[in-house]
Amino acid sequence: MSSRQSQVHCSFVPPMVLEHLARASGTDTPDPGAAQRTAVVSQQLRGLRQSASPDLPSALTGVVQPRPGKGDRAIYDDQNTWEFDKELVRGEADPAVGAQNVNQAYDYSGAARDYYKTRHGRDSLDHNGMTVNVNVNFGVDFLNAFWDGIRLVLGNGDGQIFVDFAASPDVLGHEFSHGVVQFTANLEYWGQSGALNESFADVFGSLIEQDLKGEDFESANWLVGDEIMAPGLYGEALRSMAHPGTAYDNPLMGKDPQPDHMNGYYSGPEDNYGVHINSGIINRAFYLTAQELGTEGAGRIWYAGLQNLWPTAVFTDAAQVLSAQARILARDGVVERQATQVVRGAFRTVGVL
Prior knowledge:
Layout: H1 3-6, E1 10-11, H2 15-24, H3 34-46, E2 73-77, E3 87-91, H4 100-120, E4 132-136, E5 145-147, E6 152-154, H5 169-182, H6 191-213, E7 223-224, E8 239-240, E9 249-250, E10 254-255, H7 270-274, H8 279-306, H9 315-331, H10 339-349
Parallel strand pairs: 2-4, 4-6
Antiparallel strand pairs: 1-5, 2-3, 5-6, 7-8, 9-10
Helix pairs in contact: 2-3, 4-5, 4-6, 5-6, 6-8, 8-9, 8-10, 9-10
């Protein structure tokens, strides 16, 4: 595993959004607000794999040993502390509990696991029955969710900017899919390989939600994160797969910076060299493919492609691999005959080919 990948901390809310929220909420109070605290903690968490942080409890750097591979779920309540796996509150086949977010985490992580099993024959995150470890109530008004290499971690939000992250199927699906990426292509989390990592998580997070709701291409809204927006941000989302760059535009969050074409590609150092920003280009290519082949066919191609990419893959690599997998699946009668041309056309439309 490369040093860059070993430091992976895949957050749902991009750092530039958190930084904008922190600036917008002001800094003149003795107790930092939720946005400022989340920005600081998220930055520290991103560096934990590089060196232990003196500012966070040692429990944050600990590793739990997953139970034998049963493909089961383990939902932990962190009790608004900064510690992981504080209390196991619901295991596989346990009855519902009184806490809504525990039950949502259980249901939606199960939906993600079942999507991969039913649609792609995958046995949990690692294809070897890995326990799906989900933590709820992490931190105090924590405005984020993340995959840290062994668990999905969900904040409560603050009720003003974001609501509880367990309320959204595509949040659970997105972070679960980061785990799947880790155990397949293991895409390095920076630059174009990192943007591919984020895009695969968005793609499958959206497909998991669509599968759960019985939606198809036409009925899906193709928004990522719209369900975690608090009432004051109603109508906004974190990303639009159909029209990158249009998901949000408000004083709190700023303006969505995602390009929908390589002519708007971000090449600066922020956001790990644009892992969330430039993922919109690949998201748009998937959307265009699904428009022609349907979500199931496009999902099969993208999953097959994920099995054949490598950690340092860039956008052109992905376009070529996905086109090749489309050809194989079309030959085998799994997707439509014109699938290869559709995939190539989608990547040409966004300027990758």
